[in-house]
Automatic annotation (TrEMBL):
Record keywords: Acyltransferase, Amino-acid biosynthesis, Cytoplasm, Methionine biosynthesis, Transferase
InterPro entries: AB_hydrolase_1, AB_hydrolase_fold, HAT_MetX-like
Lineage of source species: Bacteria, Pseudomonadati, Pseudomonadota, Gammaproteobacteria, Chromatiales
Protein name per the record: Homoserine O-succinyltransferase
Reactions that this protein is recorded to catalyse: L-homoserine + succinyl-CoA = O-succinyl-L-homoserine + CoA
Annotated EC: 2.3.1.46
Name of the gene encoding the protein in the UniProt record: metXS
Localization in the cell: Cytoplasm
Residues of the AB hydrolase-1 domain: 51-360
Length: 382
């Protein structure tokens, strides 16, 4: 809880909600008759309306990317390290928009919001959504905000996939695409991790085929296990070793199955706290969106061909110890962009933190991102 707000914070922020009554046809074949998106904004849209930045969040993220909702908040938004006055996404220069994805659980229409056809919460009846569906919904939000073209669309991990989809589907609506710690499609190993997480949730006796709200319960054990599994993959072996090693909580082995090692205690805490803030059905949807993302599949796995229609200039960033979306996966993106004769800058950041490095205040990372974004800012309203 801050006693005073840092000078480089966007300060206290209030989310906004926008209702869309136009039906949205989804890739799965179903149509949402209407939907809501919750979002936050930081900074001011300039008269030319050309300084807007779209932030796309990752699997467990949401619209609260920077600042605080109240002075009693324990933590700021999930990317407060990068968004604020004087930070890489400088809110003295940019108008930053951060929406919660469709299917999310923090205010946008999703499994935990009412189904207008039944009057009950959607639960498992909420349709499967894709990265392309999110881009469509975000474009509608841009329309109502009066933003014809983003100065940049920025995102890490699953957010980076949304950035690529924006550049592919709506090339004239963004000038820069910042893709951080992402991949052009999931590996079989990554899909396997997601499937184990989903099975942990769906096999929980409290899951009730996704309609657990009607039973006044949540699949706590399954969601906790899914988060614990995911969290392991977000960190590097070095990060876990440096933080915990083989440290014992009580300084001795007890020859039992309760928590003995500190890393076990840490994972259980991460899993339990996640249950209190996230929705099991949303977790299922987000992991499926990850699995399905594969923009090159429609062109015979020719990623360069897909990028050939893109007009944006790209910045691609990876982290050395990210084994979930390793630097080699970013190299695939960069290689395809170069083969497509697109303009791209690439940085590989030395980091011990694994995949989660894209959320952290790593000096080299912030320097690269800040340098690039200052160039984007200079282009605005020239």
């Amino acid at each position: 809880m801050p006693e005073t707000l840092p000078a480089d914070s966007v300060g206290l922020v209030t989310p906004h909600t926008r209702r869309f009554d136009t039906p949205l046809k989804l890739d799965c074949g179903r149509t949402l008759p209407g939907f809501e998106l919750i979002y936050e904004t930081y900074g001011t849209l300039n008269p030319a309306r050309d300084n807007a930045i779209l932030i796309c969040h990752a699997l467990s993220g949401d619209h609260h990317a920077a600042g605080y909702h109240a002075m009693s908040d324990r933590k700021p938004g999930w990317w407060d390290t990068a968004i604020g006055p004087g930070k890489p996404l400088d809110t003295d220069r940019f108008f930053v928009v951060a929406p919660n994805n469709l299917g999310g659980c923090k205010g946008s229409t999703g499994p935990n919001t009412p189904n207008p056809e039944t009057g009950r919460l959607y639960g498992a009846d909420f349709p499967i959504v894709t990265v392309r569906d999110w881009v469509r919904s975000q474009a509608l939000l841009a329309d109502v905000l009066g933003i014809e073209q983003w100065a940049a669309v920025v995102g890490g991990s699953l957010g980076g996939m949304q950035v690529m989809q924006w550049a592919i589907d709506l090339p004239e609506r963004l000038r820069h695409a910042v893709v951080i710690a992402a991949a052009p499609r999931l590996s079989a190993q990554n899909i396997a991790f997601n499937e184990v997480a989903r099975q942990a949730i769906m096999s929980d006796p409290d899951f009730h085929q996704g309609h657990f709200y009607e039973h006044d319960t949540v699949p706590r054990r399954g969601l906790m296990l899914a988060r614990m599994l995911g969290h392991i993959t977000y960190l590097s072996d070095e990060a876990l070793r440096d933080k915990f090693g083989r440290e014992l909580r009580e300084g001795r082995i007890n020859f039992g199955f309760d928590v003995e090692f500190q890393v076990e205690s840490y994972l259980r805490y991460q899993g339990q706290s996640f249950v209190d803030r996230f929705d099991a059905n949303t977790y299922l949807l987000m992991t499926k969106a990850l699995d399905y993302f594969d923009p090159a599949t429609e062109r015979g796995q020719d990623l360069a061909s897909v990028f050939r229609d893109a007009l944006a200039r790209f910045l691609v960033i990876s982290f050395t110890t990210d084994w979930r979306f390793s630097p080699q996966r970013s190299h695939e993106i960069v290689r395809a962009l170069l083969d497509a004769d697109r303009k791209v800058s690439y940085a590989e950041i030395e980091s011990q933190q694994g995949h989660d490095a894209f959320l952290l205040n790593i000096p080299q990372y912030m320097s690269v991102l800040g340098t690039y974004m200052r160039r984007v800012a200079r282009e605005c309203a020239q």
